Amino acid sequence: MKNAVGREIPENIPGLNKIRPFEGAFAYQPTGRLVGPKIPVNVPRTEKTLKSIDQAIEATGLRDGMTISFHHHFRNGDYVMLMVIEAVARKGIKDLTIAPSSLSAVQDCLIPYIDRGVITAIETSGIREKLGDLVCSGKLSKPVIIRTHGGRARAIESGETHIDVAFIGAPACDTYGNINGVDGPSACGSLGYPMVDAAYADRVVAITDNLVPHPLYPISIPQSLVDFIVVVDKIGDPNGIATGSLRISNNPKEQVISRYAAEVIEYSGYFKDSFSLQLGSGGASLTAAKFIKEKMLKQKIAASFGVGGITGVMVEMHEQGLIKRLFDTQTFDTPSIRSLKENPCHVEVSASLYANPHSRGPIVNNVDFVILSATEVDVDFNVNVLTGSTGRLMGAPGGHPDTSAGSSVSIIVLPLIRGRRPMIQDRVYTVVTPGETVDVIVTDYGVSVNPKRKDLIDNLRNSSLPVMKIEELQRKAYQMTGIPTPPLPPSDEVVAVVEYRDGSIIDVIRKSK
Q1: pLDDT tens-digit profile of 237-277?
Q2: What is the DSSP string of 40-69?
Q3: Could you tell me the Gene Ontology terms of the biological process aspect for this record (predicted)?
Q4: 40 lies in a domain?
Q5: How many Cβ atoms are within 10 Å of 305's Cβ, its own excluded?
Q6: Residues 257 and 379 in one domain
């Protein structure tokens, strides 16, 4: 079957029950009802704190073939996932599906447990490094399911993904199970991803290195959603979680891209008092904030809110009165963790509230501007943020397709050339964000506007930007690098499916030869 972005999707994929090709960003209108969690009962004065993860596994009734989930707010500082999988292996439990909100390089340590059959399937929003290479080699018995942040929340709430046991790394947890992420030696900030897991999983285990007396405040995940508590020596390495602030780039190329992106915003027609925005954590996005800030001060306007993964750059703009509210799904650095703890206008939100497309209104639907990065784009404005140009898994959809679909103006920033290779392809290796939801491509050599956005094309004529057709940008790149050699074709075997936010399949990843 050929889907709406022209990708061939097999009618049958071993290991997957339902194949629904992508039909368009807003084509699918679901019917039915959301699922609910099991009804729990807690007898008064029941002790929730257990002696070990092994004991918690026994208490939850975890057994072969079940699905367990984790969150990735600890990023490369995470200790929790390995501790749990080691305990599962000791119990002789096999054939598990893991459903973490994302996987980082630190999770390469899971490879031996895949080899032993402890883990046989993965559902996640991101996968990379050696674990990504293992997936591409076809070692897993089922294809990996890769979802957006909003799509993951949708899948859990709709029952598409059923979590038997959610293991939540808790930077602070009280003796009755209230959790937050802003206190303790392993503070990570917002717990926006496991909020959904805790609400829908059959059993919830909090793993903490900071058990405090009841009641804890503030509360991110309440005691009413937590079954058991386990205290360990350490749940994460702060050096891998957040160190200092993410910095504005001094790279000349990124400075040019950022200045162009800011000027796109200024002349878009949407740059007015009380506009809203999301900025990524990449150098170009953060640097664009510097130029946006200058324009806001000059025009004496302020943003109504900023959203997404919150960085120190956005916190600084908030504290200066340039952004009135911050909605935080994931906190990226130390100043942002402090702000979330101390500032009542810096608000923690779940991944569902942030980006679930099958809800009564995710925050992304109210965003005016989003600046997003990419590994490559193509002449149809499709964007790849998941694989390299040879198909290697090295990234994550994250909230990219969610915010691109919801925002008034989605801006993709990337260098025209990266490592002597042009970044505007005839066809991206993997489509993650469809071109129909992408409005502007910004490179260091020029800017291209999606032809369907005639309003932006007209408005940007008043700017000094080098606006050109995307084919012209591609020719500029080819003049400098030559026409790239096509990558070797993969095999026919599907090792992963890339879901669009509505659950349809926008692309597949095939086994590398």
Answers
A1: 988 886 655 667 788 899 999 999 999 999 999 999 999 99
A2: P---TT---EES-HHHHHHHHT--TT-EEE
A3: acetyl-CoA metabolic process
A4: no
A5: 21
A6: yes
Using CA atoms, how far apart are residues 495 and 510, in angstroms rounded to an integer?
5
Which tokens belong to 509? 């990843």
Domain co-membership, 235 together with 257: no
Tell me how far the alpha carbon of residue 45 is from its chain's centroid.
Answer: 39
Q: What is the DSSP letter of 14?
A: T
- Are 141 and 213 found together in one domain? yes
Domain CATH code at residue 232: 3.40.1080.10
| 271 and 206 housed in the same domain | no
Give the whole-angstrom CA distance, residue 86 versus residue 206. 17
pLDDT given at position 467: 98
Closest CA to 249 of 322, 311, 330: 311
- Locate 351 and state its tokens: 């991944």
Provide the sign of the torsion angle of the four alpha carbons 463, 468, 473, 474, taken in this order.
Answer: positive
Antiparallel, parallel or unpaired: β 228-231 and 276-279: unpaired
- Give the three-class secondary structure for 215: coil
276 and 190 belong to one structural domain: no
233 with 285, same domain: the answer is no
Taking only the tens place, the pLDDT of each residue in 373-419 is: 999 999 999 999 999 878 899 999 999 999 999 999 999 999 999 98
The domain total for the chain is 2
46-50 — which CB contacts under 8 Å span 24+ positions? 48/175, 48/176, 48/177, 48/226, 48/227, 48/228, 48/229, 49/175, 49/211, 49/228, 49/229, 49/230, 49/231, 50/228, 50/229, 50/230
d(CA 187, CA 102) in angstroms, rounded, equals 18
376-378, strands of its sheet edge to edge: 383-384, 376-378, 424-425
Task: Please state, in angstroms and rounded to a whole number, the distance separating the CA atoms of residues 288 and 277.
Answer: 12
In a domain, 419, yes or no: yes
Taking Cα atoms as reference points, which of 492, 434, 382 lies closest to residue 10? 492
Asked if residue 449 belongs to a domain, the reply is yes
Show the CA angle centred on residue 225, arms to residues 221 and 228, nearest 5°: 100
- Do 390 and 277 share a structural domain? yes
**Of the candidates 241, 269, 299, which is a domain's last residue?**
241
Backbone phi and psi for residue 347, each to the nearest 5 degrees, phi listed first: -115, 130
CA distances from 417 to 23, 141, 283, 414, 477 (A): 31, 37, 16, 8, 7
pLDDT average per 10 residues of sequence, the chain (513 residues): 96 91 96 91 93 98 98 96 98 98 95 97 95 94 96 97 98 98 96 98 98 97 98 93 68 93 98 94 83 96 96 94 97 94 98 97 98 96 93 92 98 94 95 98 98 98 97 97 86 95 97 83
